[in-house]
């Protein structure tokens, strides 16, 4: 796959709380950094996303007395998995992993900052309707093909890829540059959705400049 000036690499949530030792650690999460660094020089355009929650966020199990992490509750916008508190605004856990060096990134998109709604996708909140503004940014910059990497494959990366397709963008997910939570079969479930939506899963070795 030849990378050109209309492509953008979206590096998703490579933050301390999702990495080893974090409050919501994804298995082997820090292993995504090396392949991301390998492909980054191929891209003229790079965007970073950053989970950025208030301490009382509705997706935290601690906001629901009697509930435990990884249980599901019904909120105004639908089913919501409850998570351990993570990526709280201004905390060390919300910072990017110290080994991630992408100084050439043009935009850091913070998401999940509205206390009453979660945001997996880089494009929409979890109501699938409230936009983050990323679609408009890509449109104005004439970026039409997105390549996604980071954390987690079956949540924030996956939802972003599906929303990119919904918006008419080509979407590619770098499987070796992602790691999954795989909660109750969520990795297989997202791949089924990829197949239906036309999201292409490839490895970083398939990219060339």
UniProtKB/TrEMBL annotation:
Q: Which domain of life is it from?
A: Bacteria
Alphabetical GO biological process terms: pyridine nucleotide biosynthetic process
GO molecular function per UniProt: metal ion binding; nicotinamidase activity
Boundaries of every Isochorismatase-like domain copy: 8-205
Which InterPro entries is this protein grouped with? Answer: Isochorismatase-like_dom (IPR000868), Isochorismatase-like_sf (IPR036380), Isochorismatase_Nicotinamidase (IPR052347)
Residue ranges annotated as coiled coil are none
What EC class does the entry list?
hydrolase
Membrane keyword on record: no
The protein's annotated pathway: Cofactor biosynthesis; nicotinate biosynthesis; nicotinate from nicotinamide: step 1/1
Similarity comment? Belongs to the isochorismatase family.
Q: What's this protein's name?
A: Nicotinamidase
Q: What is the lineage of its organism?
A: Bacteria, Pseudomonadati, Acidobacteriota, Terriglobia, Terriglobales
């Amino acid at each position: 796959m030849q990378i050109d000036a209309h492509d953008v690499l979206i590096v998703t949530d490579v933050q301390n709380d999702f990495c080893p030792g974090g409050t919501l650690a994804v298995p082997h999460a820090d292993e995504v950094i090396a392949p991301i660094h390998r492909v980054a020089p191929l891209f003229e355009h790079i965007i970073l996303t950053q989970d950025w929650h208030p301490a009382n966020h509705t997706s935290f199990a601690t906001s629901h007395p009697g509930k435990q992490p990884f249980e599901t509750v019904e909120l105004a916008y639908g089913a919501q998995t409850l998570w351990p508190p993570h990526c709280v605004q201004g905390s060390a856990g919300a910072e990017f992993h110290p080994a991630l060096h992408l100084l050439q990134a043009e935009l850091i998109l913070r998401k999940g900052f509205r206390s009453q709604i979660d945001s997996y996708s880089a494009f929409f909140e979890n109501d699938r309707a409230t936009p983050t503004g990323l679609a408009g940014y890509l449109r104005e910059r004439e970026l039409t093909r997105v390549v996604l990497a980071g954390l987690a494959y079956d949540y924030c990366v996956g939802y972003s890829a599906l929303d990119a397709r919904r918006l008419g963008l080509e979407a590619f997910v770098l499987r070796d540059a992602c790691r999954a939570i795989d909660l109750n079969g969520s990795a297989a479930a997202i791949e089924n959705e990829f197949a239906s939506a036309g999201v292409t899963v490839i490895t970083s070795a398939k990219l060339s400049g």
